[in-house]
Amino acid sequence: MSPPLSASGTQQRYGWIRPSAICGLLCAMLAAGCAVMTRLHRPYAPEQGNVQSDVPDDGYHDYVGVIHVHTTYSHDAMGTFEDAVRVANAQRLDYLVLTEHNNLQALRDGKQGWHGTTLMLIGMEISTQGGHYIAMNVTEDINRHVMTTQQIIDEVNRQGGFGFIAHPFFKKGRWRDWSVTGFTGIEAYNVAHDTLDENRMRLVMWTLTVPAEPFYLSILQRPYDPLSTWDELIRRHHRVVGIGSSDAHEFHLFGLKFAPYEVMFQFIRTHVLIPSQTLEASAVYEALRNGHAYFAIELLAEAKGFSFMAHNDERILGIMGDEIALEPNLRLTAVLPAPAQLALFRDGQPIATATTQTWEVPVDSPGVYRLEASRHDQPWIFSNPIYILPPEPVQEMIAEIPPSEQHEEIEDGPMPSAPSASETPRLSPILSAMASASWKSRAARSGSWNS
Length: 451
Known about the structure:
- With about 450 residues, the chain is an alpha+beta fold.
- Helices cover about 25% and strands about 30% of the residues.
- The chain has 2 domains: about 300 residues, TIM Barrel (Alpha-Beta Barrel); about 45 residues, no CATH class.
- The chain has 14 helices and 20 strands.
- Helix 12 runs antiparallel to helix 14.
- The N terminus and C terminus are likely disordered.
């Protein structure tokens, strides 16, 4: 682990804290003598009993945690492993995933396992030629210097692990190799680089003031670019899991904490849905692999209890991450722990909105459906998709298409932006079959989505 740094060492490691900012910080401290607020108030926990009793139970238990955390096992963090455990326990987190830079030393030191009431899991953030990659459930170090990005992803999979493209829009380390395959998903929101990176000086100045809520709420906004990229990756690869990541480091300077764990662990959390009352590492990993998860910004309100499912008149057919064949009377139902502004997306485009706590929407066409919820015009919950496939006859048509024609070739280069509602993208044979099925379904039923 890295030893504590002097102020000069801190400046070398955290180049974004410039000398002029440090001088201004010290002057403000001497002039104001302000107290430092390093935590937010506990968020509002809605009463679970408010949900309608006739909503079907999907049979899954909701476990909340934080993904992508650094401690002094990384070269650029000052919070310790013990600090992370203390805050995770205090915030009643069920699990926390440490992803130290390019090393598994915490795993070798026996840190994985239960610490108090939190299951600590050890992963790794790997710096590849194409960008940073979050690897989970790996047990061996990876020599990133002699491998391509694709080879690193393949090595993670060989070890029985899986991974996520990290902070694709980080200014100093954007993801560049969009030709890769074999990854599980993407960070659809990274607090450190999608929000705090854009407000570094304001973060420095906030550290001297109280309370914390106004600052963080003032910089909070929907992560448009990462979400659009996620939708585009789904269009290319069909199944891509989205997670919300903290990328917490906790910086210390002159006795002050910048972006402390107390705030970062509350800013974004990823909930995993597990059909067991016993939480184990393997169950967390399986839920993340399958997309049985959603992520939420919990600065003001906890999201535990949210569900998004597909069902017919008789039974639940699937939850977030599942694939379901289109059938008559298919419906999507969202249940939230509190009323919210909801938006339903199909294939990356918003198709319906409502303000409610329980929302049921009929489904009459195939597509990739995900839900976003906001409260008081602030982003709150982001579901993983439910994948509605064409009816069985259309799936048989798709199976007859030669494999070489089922997927578009992907060239190495910039990720194109998701098509707007006014654009008509070129359809692959699979999408053409889906579109044909959708048109026939609409013509037969003369129905459409209701907002």
